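Structure tokens please, single chain.
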Amino acid sequence: MELLKKVLEINEKYSLIENSDTVVVGFSGGPDSVFLSEILKLMQAKIKFNFLLVHINHMLRGKDADDDETFCVEYAKKYNLRIFHKKIDIKSLAKEKGKTLEEVGREERYKLFSEVLEETGANKIATAHNKDDQIETFLFKLIRGTTLQGLEGINPKRENIVRPISEIYKKDILDYLNKNQIQYRIDKTNFENEFTRNSIRLDLIPFIEERYNNKFKDKVFSIINEIRENNKNNLLDYSKFIKNNNSLKLEELKKLSENQLKNLFAYILNKKNIQINREKINNILDLITKNGSKKIDLDNEYELIKTYDKIYFQQKQLKEKKISLTNDNEIEISSKNKNFIFFNKFKINIDIVQNLKDSDIKSKDKYLLVIAEETFNSGKVKIRFRKDGDKIFLGTHSKKIKEVFINKKIEKEKRDFIPIFLIDDEVFWIYGLLKGKVRESDCFKQKLINILITVEEVQI
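Here you go.
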């Protein structure tokens, strides 16, 4: 069979599916996913692997969507394949998250894929993108505006996601299924051309093929391959610029040319599934050259933040929040608290110690507070987050906490989440950053005690 031979060649070329793999297959019941499943069954005679199906009913097309789900379950039963299927109200989720149906659909799809991977011990995900999908994606991005990285189309392999039929035309897929009388489902919305991608498929490509070049799709795919090869040859070792796949040092970025920077960020955005366009890349380049802390939105999920010496990507829903383990914004530290208290995501240990000097405390997580026993018991020692105008007493003078944060190059997004310690509303310690002094007063004529305050960050 010619198509099987071609898919096996694609598989070997890109090392997609190998012996001992267990593959999670996105299965809509449409011609592409049915063809992929049929091909995988044939490939099992050559490669020793297993696969299972995953279907999501997006609840967007009423009875048609329910019939699709039924078809998929019966298909799996017929061929003794394991299937995971789930109904998800994509429309409600999109409204709740303020995202498009396509964005939320993709998120939920890959979320379910990941859950199935974990539950079954599978190691790869296979999607049924075909050659036409690649060409339509190329034209879609070209029309919208993107970079050379963005024009690579849909790669046959990306991390643990493989696309075994990505170089097979839709026409060949349909011919095979119809010739062999293999049933599949049709999504009628694919023939509605009010959506850009559908219009490209239904209007633009046929028009160019008929009017200018009937081999237009072949020409476009050749360009896609050239762009991929060019990008590969010009690819820097980007890993050395990225710390924890999240932050990049400005001093390293400034060594790169403008073109290298564009390729670097196109590469990173692509890895994070962030839509790429020239305006977005240019905004990032502008961000690098500006002074001070800045940030820009990349999409509904990510933002890019520039600090004094680095830039980093941050997921909006994972922004640090004031997670109250208590319901208080300000807590007293006194003998009433016994051994420890919780403040936000911090555990504050309170110990009365003997024969310990301030010079013995080297850790930034500890502070030796020498204080009158009566003052300590009165609840005048407190912990909270900063307020406008806060100053820390340093013995001979005071300094604004805002200046401390600026001098220590603390990102704006983190400043509101650093605990500060006070007596009578005067700061004597900024946790992890600066130890100040306690102002002398008449209370120091009383009996003094040594309080060792230790701060631990706890997992929420």
